[in-house]
Structures are given as structure tokens and as C-alpha cells.
Amino acid sequence: MKVDGTPFRSIWLNEDGWSVDIIDQTRLPHEFKVERLTTLDQAAHAIKAMLVRGAPLIGATAAYGVCLGLREEASDAALRKIGDILIATRPTAVNLRWAIRAMQDLLLPLPESERVAAAYEKAAQICDEDVAINSAIGDHGLGVIEAIWEKKGKTGVVNILTHCNAGWLATVDWGTALSPIYKAHNKGIPVHVWVDETRPRNQGAHLTCWELGKHGVDHTLVVDNVGGHLMQHGQVDLCITGTDRTTAAGDVCNKIGTYLKALAAKDNNVPFYVALPGPTIDWEIDDGVKDIPIEIRDSHEVDFIQGKDSAGQVSEVRILPEESSSANYAFDVTPARLVTGLITERGVADASKEGLARLYDRLEYKAS
């Protein structure tokens, strides 16, 4: 995608051929800053502190984290320790574990002297495959949007509600939930996106609005609890969200608040789609509510809010009383029964074991 006319991915190899450049997403939308990663610890920090976020991008960053770690030591013990360090950074997104396993499966059989070069080649492959996967998700999701546009007699606009950021900033490029929107916009279909602010980190306000604005897509920011109201009044034609982990039975785990949007969509007969790449499917679990670990993040993210003040300075302010406490559950699980369909790189599947089995062999992305 482009930023002010310049093409960017969310992660890329520096021109020195070994260090890794990322966009520091904690500084958006007020500052566009490229951060250079040169060590395993820096890669782990980038994931944990959410300089990078979004399941596919976390996986890609972890792959390059392995590369950086191996530059210090390439033994079997070091490779396993590197994996343990990176996996511990974020517990919910399955792509992280999948990427580490893919790297280890390739590298452990190789002589130590060959591991660094092979690791960089594999990390680049993971990134390129992610771009291709997300572009294909966009193509299949475009069909969903086109069908709604035709049903409306190709008049007015197609109103889409999304939650959190599942655009190119959450992947290597294109995005998952936003990829169909970009494809529709590029094809000339008039789309308008209702963007949930997505408290407490405000990824919708900070990142999705920034992305859509840079690409020229019409959008409106709303607070998280407006979605149901919009659906009741016929102002949402469909919902599309991303997911950090999808079970073999079609349950989806996404940013906290997604479940409530799915309930509102069900009550108002609004189609609720989830866009995901194959590596996001966790084939080892069926019951998402019971078995997906939900990350509980630092309460500071709830207690304080960041923004730009009247003097143009980026700062944060506390929004609750000093004596009050808060809890910060980062994700929730939407049961498959509430999901209209799963938009994947291989087509649109029913949110069920049978639907996913028609598109995937469950051993393809085995992550344990």
C-alpha cells in the first residue's frame, strides 16, 4: 500500500541486508516513524509492546526475530530458546507460534553454518506469501461486497462496519478485513466504512482511519457501542472483521468487543464475515471460548488515553479516578454460530469444521 504516494510494506529488510525495518504503530496517526530492529530482544519488544500488531504481522516479525537471534548464536539450544522468547511475547495470536514452528522445522535439520542464510530466506518467503494470501482474501471478499452492491441495484453506497485494525498495518500488505474494501474501492464500488474506535488502544481511530484516509476510502469513526444502533437503523450492509485465532470449528477470536458486534448483527440480520489467512486457523482446538488463551494486558492502556493536544504535542492523560482499578481483556471469542462466513485466501467458507475442511488440510498449518 502507499503512504503519501510511496509504497510501503509493514515490515521489510533494511538495505544493509540483515537488520529489519518496521513502522512503529504506537506513534500513528500523529507520527510516521520507521524503527530498525537489530537484535532478538528488539524484535521481541516490538511484538510485546505492539510496535507491530495483528496476527499475520506478528508472525512475520517473529520470523525475522529468529534471523536476528541466530546471528548471535545458531546452535540447536539457541534456536529453541529464541522460539521460546518470541512465543512468550503474545499468547493469543496463533500465527506467532506457526511462524516459529515453520522456522524451526526448516532450520533444525541444517548445519549451524547454513542456518542464518536459510532463516532470512524463509522469513522473506513468509512475508511474500502473506502478501499473496491477503490479496487473495481481498479478491474473494470483493465478491461478497459486489453481491451486496448488485442487490442494492448499484445505487447508493455499501456501508461496512469493521472493528479494530485488520488492514495492511496488521499484515505485511493488503490486510485481511480491509483487503476486500480496498479491492472494492479500487474497482469503483462506492464503499463507506464505519470504523469502531476500538478501545482501549484505539486501533480503529489511530490505525484504520489513518489507513483508509491514506487510500482515499470514505469512512466515519464511531465509538465502540454505536454499531448496534447503526444496524437497527439500516445503516450497515455488512460487518467484516479480522481474527487473531480461528478454531477448527469456526469460532473466531478477535479484539475485545467483536462478540458484541456479532450479536448485534445477528439480531438485525446483518451479514457478519470474518477475514483470515490459513495460518490463523488453530486446528488443535474446537471450543474457542473454553480453549483460546485471552491476553490480559497492562491496565495502563485502559487508565490513560493518548492524543495530540492543542499545542500539537502528543501526550496521554488519565481518564479514571486514582483510587479506581481497571481490567484490560484484549480479546473475546465469537462463536461460529454468529459468523455468516469466513473469507479466506481459498474462498469463502462456512464457519464450521466442514466448511474449513473443504478448503484446507488441517495438517498444513499445524503449529505445535
UniProtKB/TrEMBL annotation:
Matches recorded under HAMAP family: Salvage_MtnA
Name of the protein: Methylthioribose-1-phosphate isomerase
Pfam families xrefs: IF-2B
Keywords: Amino-acid biosynthesis, Isomerase, Methionine biosynthesis
This protein's pathway: Amino-acid biosynthesis; L-methionine biosynthesis via salvage pathway; L-methionine from S-methyl-5-thio-alpha-D-ribose 1-phosphate: step 1/6
Species the sequence originates in: Sneathiella sedimenti
Keyword Transferase set for record: no
Positions annotated to bind substrate: 53-55, 90, 203, 254-255
